[in-house]
Amino acid sequence: MAGSLLSLEFDRSSVTRVRHLVMVSAQEAGLKGVILEDFVLAVHEAVTNAVRYGSPPRGIAMWREAGVLVAEITDKGPGIPDEALEREETTTRFGFGGRGLWLMNRLADLVVRTGAEGTTIRLSVALP
């Protein structure tokens, strides 16, 4: 990983700390303004989904490569159901939940690898 910025395991008790570290790392990489806020929100959605639906160990890594900032969030959970991956709209307008992947896909470039052995969410954004 060229330009490694962050690498750690996390759990429910460290979600706030992880969000702060992502913010600081993204700022150090050169993100600012709305792009920074959007990227941090997208990563936060992936982290909270890993805590909510995945199983330990859960990890996050961030790095720079070829003008891009990348965050990769992993867990060893049961995988994301196909219907959640195929959804193009949020589940309900006012309900809770069901927006994480939809939001991530709109705030950053999203790649999902998922299956019975766990999930990897890779989010990236161009650096200024």
TrEMBL record:
It comes from the Bacteria. Residues 11-124 form the Histidine kinase/HSP90-like ATPase domain. Keywords: Kinase, Serine/threonine-protein kinase, Transferase. The keyword Protein biosynthesis does not apply. The keyword Electron transport does not apply. GO terms for molecular function: protein serine/threonine kinase activity. InterPro entries: Anti-sigma-factor_SerPK, HATPase_C_sf, HATPase_dom. This is Histidine kinase/HSP90-like ATPase domain-containing protein.
